[in-house]
Structure of CHAT domain-containing protein:
Amino acid sequence: MTVDMAVETVRDPAHGYTGEPPGQGDGELRVILTYRSAEQLLIVVKGQEGWFRADLETPATVLWQLGARLRALWSDLVVHHQSPDGSYGEQVGGYPLTETVDLSKFAPVTDELVARLAREGYGLLTKLLHGHNPRLTGVRDFLMDALTRPEPLRVTFDSEVQLPWPMLAVDPGGCGSPWEAFLGHRHQVEQNDRHPWDHAPLAVRDRAATSLNKDTALDEVGRAPEVHQLLENRTRLTVRTKGSELLDALAVRILAEDLMYFWCHGHFADNGASGTCLSVRLTDDEHVDGPAVEFRRFGIPRTSQARFKPFVLLNACHTGRAGAPGALKHLGQELIEMGAVGVLAPQIDVPQVFAAEYAYEFLESYLAGERTAGEISQSLVRDFAEKYHNPLALTYGLNCGIDSRLDLAS
């Protein structure tokens, strides 16, 4: 008898014991960072040649702080770069690198900033692997050799300490230009902390089901109207403008969306003695954060009687960051925990005009169903660098979903 197959978003075939998706020609590299103790991390590297493992000598807290420092440098040097004298045709004291996507006329500035940030990214990667233990030396030699080869890889960092992986870099001195040193430019890169399970199947459909979860105050920013129209024309679109609507949707046992797009503000809320927690807000004052989402999913089993398996483009400032180890999980982490096949989000305060442009380019390609999220995110890093001399695509981090592809013919 004829059986309708579900619309699926393909992800990480190794977990599902299936063959590799068509078109996955690049090699694969997996790096595992896991705690041995409160400060001691074990690194395990799996490449095509086998497994390598060693204890890291840099404490976990130091690595976490250096990751935060690198994000802050990107924000300070690029987003908050000021024009001191108006020499580039901008108002004195303005923020010229945030006002347009095409930074070609600022090439001398961005080249200098990218060179500095590449050195900083290389410094963090060097610190991560620094040490004199023979096993660690072997891991370092193997990993650096793999990352510096010209062939692109699909690189998974299965790490309990989440670092800004695309913004890390190999030695810029060994590259054609500092732009090419960044891991996000050289390779497809993801942070992976997902544990997939079988979700409820869906009936076959002719269009993807999507949602636009937005703050209407951002409706006219850059290409935001075109993003809305793109989703309206090519998908079955649900628009939500209130946090309460979003939380109610997330409480449903079967949420049949292939893609969720967030277009709103992200900010850190003070939780008193427990520190800060990252939340987003749509048009209303409802705070949507990790705990709020977790509470709505209480009691929903991780079985084939439930479904939450969208790819999520979380286009709000800082939402690509994880909560500190042992602290409350941020929104993106909880969406992964709920079952999202992947979350793509900025790790710093990205300018709104750039964010809208990035969203349009990513969604247009992803909805075509021909390339994976990993392929698209890497190509956008290269495209924005080559066409516009703009490095900000490197600030978008992919949490799971490197092999995710919209597949309506499954």
Observations:
- The mean pLDDT is 87.
- The first helix runs from residue 13 to 16.
- The CA atoms of residues 73 and 178 lie 16 Å apart.
- The first strand starts at residue 8 and ends at 10.
